[in-house]
Design goal:
Length: 217
């Protein structure tokens, strides 16, 4: 039978874990959006060896499980003399992988902008930066919003992997509570509700931005 008292007694630990998870998701999500935009712009403009390096990095991140990357960074960097805090390590790894996903989504958005509009901008004397800012970016962004929200929802779920290196987020809090109380079900139901709530709120925000941006075709 479900024991609500386990959750009530552990509410402070769950709240602390929830706050850390939200902070981690906001920080990593914001950096992933910025990094993804820069990576997308670089890939669209790069040629020759630079393009090969960017493509290789993107393929490596896309095809390597995040948990493996997390272990490599967390256990590998100290072996070469770099010590970084656990929270920072999780942020770095989340940004490394999810900025790649963001860049690919945005690249698809940029490629969907009709070439005729870019040529029209050039024809009336617009500078390349103005074309990017006024013509390409708004349309690419609006076309990418639904997929970007999916990437950010996935990022929220991936924050749970921080528990693998003892980051005391929601998942680690549930593990600690489970070990202390011998309740193997209730804590994980509680955090499942928390993750679902965060994902639902982000999806609602995505729907709002999607309506505001009026997806361009």
């Amino acid at each position: 039978m479900f024991d609500w008292s386990v959750i009530v007694r552990s509410r402070e630990e769950l709240l602390n874990g929830f706050q850390l998870t939200v902070l981690l998701a906001c920080l990593a999500g914001g950096l992933s959006l910025m990094g993804g935009l820069l990576l997308c712009a670089a890939r669209l403009k790069a040629r020759g060896p630079v393009a090969w390096v960017l493509t290789a990095y993107i393929e490596l991140m896309r095809n390597t499980p995040l948990l493996i990357t997390l272990y490599l960074i967390y256990f590998g960097l100290p072996m070469v003399g770099f010590q970084i805090p656990t929270f920072t390590c999780v942020v770095v790894v989340l940004v490394m992988q999810h900025s790649v996903f963001v860049s690919e989504v945005l690249r698809g958005g940029f490629l969907s902008v009709p070439l005729a509009q870019i040529e029209a901008g050039r024809a009336i004397g617009m500078r390349p930066l103005a074309i990017f800012r006024i013509v390409q970016l708004p349309q690419a962004w609006s076309a990418s919003v639904p997929a970007l929200m999916s990437v950010l929802v996935l990022l929220i779920h991936d924050t749970s992997l921080g528990a693998a290196i003892s980051l005391v987020d929601l998942t680690m809090a549930a593990k600690v509570i489970s070990q202390r109380t011998a309740a193997s079900f209730e804590p994980f139901v509680a955090i499942a509700v928390c993750y679902s709530l965060l994902s639902w709120l982000l999806s609602r925000a995505g729907s709002f931005f999607e309506r505001r941006s009026g997806i361009a075709r």
